[in-house]
Amino acid sequence: MVEFTARSGAKPYDQRREEIDEEREAKGDLPIPDEEFLTLVYDPTEPAVKELQEKMKKVRAELTPEFNSPTDEPLSPRTQREIQRKNDLIVTVEARAPKKGKVILHPQETLAELVGGHEAVRFIKKRKVEDSHVVVGVPDGIYSMMSTILDQVRQMVRSLPMREVKKFVLDEEVHYLATAEFPDPSQHSMHNHYVRAANGLLGQILKDNDKIIIEETLTEKAVVLGSTCDIEDEDPNNNEDEDREAHNFPLF
Question: Given this model, what pLDDT does residue 244 score?
Answer without folding.
Answer: 47
